[in-house]
Amino acid sequence: MMSKSDKKQAILDTALTLFVSQGFYATSTASIAKQAGVATGTLFHHFPSKDELMNHLFLNIKQEFADAILASVQDSGDLKQDAKHLWTSAIQWAMDNPLKQEFFQQYSMSPTIASKIREQAMNSILGFMGALMQKGQTLGLLANYPLTLMQDNSHGQFLAATRFFLDNPEKWQDPQHQEASFLLFWNAMVKG
User: Where is the HTH tetR-type domain (predicted)?
Assistant: First the structure.
């Protein structure tokens, strides 16, 4: 028999798969519950609505992503090298977790995710990116663009790069493509 936490995880895993394969609107809570092997009432016990399930899934995966990236953070004193390490680690996470990254591809910019949830993910969960950008601005290495705009722009670049590498995984193994993807990201922020 599944424990309460197993049931919750089964619901989240199933929702992730169905949201990616069928889309948010085409996926019913009944189909999630059925495929997860739980009663619909159990789903609603954990998540009062499909929107809350989506938000929980989004924040959970963003936190998992951030934890993985933070575990690889280095403070070498060379901002560009540290940024490159973060960028590479982030794309490597996407390559290692294609279903979760596919979920971000579909929902990061979607009105399905409430803007306050996206802001929470960007500011609290991915706050280390903002801190890195602020440090770069303070050091005079990065342009003094508004921080939230820089973060959103960088996020868009990350989604574009991961889309490219998920579609062309062999290119992620190519050092020239890795370097080019980082320079596209970096050069968008450097002081001109």
Answer: 5-65
